[in-house]
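Why does this matter for the project? Reviewers at the last site visit asked to see concrete outputs rather than summary tables. In response, this paragraph embeds two records directly. Each consists of the residue sequence and, immediately after it, the corresponding structure tokens. Nothing has been edited or filtered.
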Amino acid sequence: MNPISADLDALALQIKDWGREFGFAHIGISPASNDAHAQRLREWLAKQYHGDMTYMAEREGLRGEPAELHSGTIRVISARMDYLPDAENMDAVLGNPNKAYISRYALGRDYHKLIRKRLSQLAEKISAVAGGHHRAFVDSAPVLERGFAEQAGLGWIGKNSMLINSKAGSWFFLGEIYTDLPLPLDPPQEAGHCGSCRACLDDCPTGAIVAPYQVDARRCISYLTIELKTSIPEELRPLMGNRVFGCDDCQLVCPWNKFAQATAEADFSPRHQLDNSDLIELFLWDEETFLKNTEGSAIRRIGYQRWLRNLAVGIGNASASSAAISALKQQRPSAESMALEHIDWAIGQLQGRSRATISKANSSDV
């Protein structure tokens, strides 16, 4: 065996050992090219499924050309970190219309900061031992992360467009290191393990999974509550239920998630009881409280007005009560025009249901 190849094989193994020391559950290495996924992205963009995420189209070319983003890149090191908390009450919260459901990934510390730091430390170790040029990414640049992770053997792309691992499900984050070292490649997992299952398509609250492996972001609750900066389409609001920041339904029903691993990262544990809070309680936060309680959290990125917008929709879908209507009216002075529109919509929804209930009760008495 070529001594250089032997050294690179040993380095690849060492990188995986270092990755485990930094808390990553799986490290894989792929080539820095992925024409199939780049073509799928172009087709997805052509259908306008990206909605208002104009940056997806503006930087589309860089996703398929890693060397354009980081000169000299010939390999992508993909890393997986599990985030599911040990104790879970997801179904109970979703089943209670007066509770606020927040996507599990956002309950603890912002993963971008934690994983980027760990990947940067891993890149520094590689550089110290083998030289080369490396750059870490965590959902912060135009990277085909799921495509590269699939090529590196971390899983396969499921019908919900999530990466699924046969031993860990899909409750995990991904990060990458672009490198100019010619490291040995890992074999991809065999694709197609979703079989005839349609659980994610059939259970998507808004019908955003329009076909196997195709998600129309314009209907996706994660897009509507996080990425969308304007009003949520009125016809979709009732379908959102109590999901106020992201949505996990397609993961909750995925059979492969029975193998999901609980996270070992304390920073991913829920903060401020956000895994089990009432809609009204969160809605009545003033902006100062919002900023304080979302410090270091991915939730802060949407800002206070979108926080009010999302919670107003949740309250509008919740049980009609005088307390809910009072809370909505109490926050009207704090709301800017976009949030105010959703607050008034919610008041109308609750008042309409209250009138319907009274009318039904009166009819029963006749």
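We now turn to the second protein, recorded in exactly the same manner.
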Amino acid sequence: MMRCRLSACVLVILLAVAGQAAARKYAAIFNFGDSLVDAGNLVVDGIPEYLATAKLPYGMTYFGYPTGRCSDGRLVVDFIAQELGMPLLPPSKAHNATFHHGANFAITGATALDTSYFVAKGLGKTVWNSGSLHTQIKWLQDMKASICSSPEECKDLFRRSLFIVGEFGGNDYNSPLFAFQPLEEVHKFVPDVVNSIGEGIEKLIAEGAVELVVPGVLPIGCFPVYLSIFKKQPEMYGPRSGCIRDLNTLSWVHNVALQRKIAELRKKHAGAGVRIIYADYYTPAIQFVLHAEKWGFLRQTPRACCGAPGVGEYNFNLTSKCGDPGSYACDDPSNHWSWDGIHLTEASYGHIAKGWLYGPFADPPIVEARHH
């Protein structure tokens, strides 16, 4: 009886180890995106004076110093790398870094669409684009010579790698939103943004990628920056969440269109063994607001941990944002979901990463996809 139990234990351990091995089979991770996943590309050549996100208290929780990440600590991509037993991805522009386990091409301000699109719509002033999705893919193509010795070797590496493509879209919509264009106009951007993301996915598949994670956008109506800038009539706010409904609708519409695009691409590349995973930022962020205690957050109106106290109910002030003089971080960022009113705390990103890896915030979960 005892022997039987022992063998059962051994089997359980072996299965657990096999599960971990399955989750760790990636040769590398290549990440693309904007400030939600930028690991420091904007600051590799020194910190611009105007850049508050590269000053303390950014980085206070995990690194103890600012790294160029727009959070108090790690981002979703950092948690995913660690969980899969891989090193944190270096920013792709880093000097003297090795990229054999992957690279992070994300850069703050990135859009899905190229700058020319916004300029043509008279929005050149409200887009601050340091590298669109297609520019970032070009950076990957330029890097190939330094990480593999032949196109075949690159294809093989990419086939065994995880590609995280985004989130993209947030800054595309910010451009018309911050120019105070009517929301009907902003909605017209959705098909172009989603098609551009689709084209990016196609380019990466052509490079050899077979496993791609494509995140949707956050519910922007719940974020202090939007709540502070766009004052609405009382009936425009969710009664339980305090979020701006029509801004969340914009995010929702984008995510539905993106999931439709992913379904289309899955069908198109079904024979090639390509897996495209939709990763959800929207649902967890809404849950952080509506069911704060469940996630270890304070139950309160959407409120930035780091901001200018006493300025507004959301602890957000455009003239003294987190990292600017006059702003302070809350004592415990782990009980806040919003870090600076624009980005999330390390605690939030940890929950989201877990949901992408094991469910329920990904379709299908990354680790599950890896077992098939």
